[in-house]
Every structure is written in structure tokens, then in C-alpha cells.
Design goal:
55% of the residues lie in helices and 6% in strands. By secondary structure, the protein is mainly alpha-helical.
């Protein structure tokens, strides 16, 4: 969590890839090794994962869902707080519009993180946007889980 609205510091930003022609079990095994290495290196307290929705390409959605499941299970096993956010929620939180396109998300991530260049590839910007969404939403989620009230005064 950030204190007092501080700007998050980027420690690492990237995308994990596996050979597309490898069989699914081999690709998932390689991702598991990569995830475990990242958990060992960065020792996160929390992990945010995008909720997967089935779209036109069911095969891609299934693969992404299986990879997400690995991340969710490993994060839970490591004692991390685990949250999932829909793509629309992430875009709304980071870009101010739930139907923002990839370039709009990239520009907002660049701006919010103070990056000199657009994060690339676009999937890395999506991951950073997910982290920014989590940083914005988690304090409220923790208060609600703890049973603490949140007061809002409007004028």
C-alpha cells in the first residue's frame, strides 16, 4: 500500500512468454517456474490478477484462465492477499473510462508512474494498470473486510 497518495515506484515491468507451439502442460510448467522465481525475488504481500472473461477466442481465454489459476494458487499458497479485477474496472480506475483502448491505458500508466516512455508491450501496460487499480482499491477493500466504516461527506 502507498502512504498519503505517494507515486508508486516501478521496480520491474514486463511480460512472461512461452513458446506458442509448446504443448499446454509444458507452457504452464514454464510459467509456474517463472512465477515462483518472481515470488522469490520480489516477495509480494499482494497479488492482483485480471478476471478472465470468455470472448470470441475461447482457446486463448482458456489458456489465459489456466495461467491465471496458477498465479492465484501460488499467491494464496505464499500467503499473499489475492484480488481479481475485471478489465472494465481496471480501465475505469486507471483511465477514467471502462472502454479505454490499449493506447489510452498505456498513456495513463506512463503518466501515473512517471515513465519517460510508453510501457511496452501493451500487455506490460495492462499489468501495470492492474497494479495501479489494486493500489487504488485495496485500502477500501481492507477497511470493508475489517468492518471499519467509511464515511463520505458531500456538499
Amino acid at each position: 500500500m502507498l502512504d498519503g497518495g505517494a507515486t508508486p515506484k516501478v521496480v520491474a515491468l514486463g511480460v512472461l512468454r512461452t513458446p506458442p507451439n509448446d504443448p499446454l502442460p509444458a507452457r504452464l510448467a514454464a510459467l509456474m517456474v517463472d512465477f515462483e522465481s518472481l515470488f522469490d525475488e520480489f516477495e509480494p504481500d499482494a497479488v492482483a490478477v485480471e478476471q478472465v472473461f470468455f470472448q470470441a477466442n475461447t482457446r486463448t481465454a482458456m489458456g489465459v484462465a489456466q495461467a491465471s489459476g496458477l498465479a492465484l494458487a501460488l499467491a494464496h499458497r505464499r500467503g499473499c492477499r489475492v484480488r481479481q479485477y475485471t478489465p472494465t474496472h481496471v480501465k475505469e480506475t486507471v483511465a477514467g473510462w471502462g472502454r479505454a483502448d490499449k493506447s489510452q491505458v498505456q498513456r495513463m500508466v506512463q503518466s501515473r508512474l512517471g515513465l519517460a516512455t510508453l510501457p511496452s508491450p501493451a500487455d506490460a501496460a495492462d499489468a501495470a494498470a492492474l497494479a495501479l487499480c489494486h493500489l487504488a482499491c485495496e485500502p477500501l477493500e481492507i477497511r470493508l473486510a475489517d468492518g471499519r466504516s467509511t464515511r463520505v461527506v458531500t456538499g
